[in-house]
Amino acid sequence: MQKQARFYLIAETALQSELVAQEALACELAAQAWRLGKRVLIACATEQQALNLDEALWQRDPEQFVPHNLSGEVTQYATPIEISWPGRRNAQRRDLLINLQQQLPDFIASFTQVIDFVPADEEGKAQARERYKLYRQLGFEMITEKA
Length: 147
Hints:
seven-stranded parallel beta sheet; Rossmann fold; alpha/beta; two-stranded antiparallel ribbon
């Protein structure tokens, strides 16, 4: 299977509730992937970011509920969406990585599908360009979309 990295271009940096635009989009994309039967890992930059996404997913309307957990939480069953941060990740295999980190996670080689973001700010764009180059060097087919 061809490896694929999809970058979403974020037009604004405005907050949507407590989440920045790419975090809100990450939650929505994770929900969409879960509805398609995919097992998702959201790799956050910090533990606080992971907690924010966890809270945002819990606050969705009941009919929009998405089963998820934070890495390291003990659950009776493996949840389809895991939210991790550096130094904390469960070992379950996942189909899709949603990357919110500034660098590529060290476990990138275990994924064939990745979603990443190009933020509106210049520093974020520069970091995204570096990740884009690395994905391409790793053999990912590159796709770019407007958010």
